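Morning, I've got a small favour to ask if you have a moment. It would help a lot if you went through both lines with me. I owe you a coffee for this, so here goes:
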Amino acid sequence: MNRRVILGLAAALALAGCGQPKGGEPERKELVFSILSAESQSSAEKDWQPFLDDMAEAVGRPVKAYYGSNYTALVEAMRFKQTDLGWFTNQSGLEAVRRANGEVFARSVNPTGVDGYEAVIIVPKGSGLTLDKLLSCDKSLNVGMGDPKSTSGTLAPMTYLFAPRNIMPDACFKTVRSANHETNLFSVSGKLLDAATNNTASMDRLKLLDTDVARRTLENVEIIWRSPRIPEDPLIVRKDLDPELRKKVMNFIFSYGVGDTPEAARQRKILEQIQTKPFIPADASHLIPVREMEATGQLLEAKNRNDTAAIAKAEAALAQIAKDKAPVAR
């Protein structure tokens, strides 16, 4: 198992052991909002704190941020009731639904007006590294991938690029390093990596900073592969969250930044910093594309291994997804 995943699990289990109420002690009074770890915690804290402060005022209790070191830590924290809701990637959100009693209730909205984003593979600009060279698997390249539960950093490139060609990155490249999007972007820009996965949303966010470092970093990379469009990220809430508190949270989320008032305009500026327009409602159907992506990748890998049982399982999953996609008869 990946060492970072093990550390994330250990952190979540430690939280679970020390944070649960004992005997007649009251439940914790704060609301805990988890934030996906696609960027460094230091940059995320600056952008998110104003939003969390406004949420605390609206729900009438402190709101604490939980920044996981990786996506597994976020899922495990919700599983052990150390977090109440949060912003997940599609793949980690699916895991939270499956394993942490979570459900989709909202989704982000791309501030560029384009619905969704793309996984990409970036290389140093002017390096001459092409997609064909990357896929030649001569074990000469140092490549960065995302967290194992990152939709754009791992799942999309595996599903759409590597698995259809029977390529396993560990066997294809000289080294494969797992890191967040920000680290991979800077590593490719600084020529510490020959190539890395990333996504257009992360690159747009860096462009939004409009600093010398941000401009120089983006000028030093180029995209050699893009995935099909991926749905925006979901917000997940624990199903067993107190109904009254849940209602307050929903009222806050779906009214935040909405309207023509000066206050709504202020709120929209805060949302822009976390790279979204006002959130909109969503449900389990939001995760159908990532379920389909996951099952397609599993089917391709099973066929590459000639694993009859795994092929049947993946085909059954795709058949169920097709049913879920079908419009409900009225």
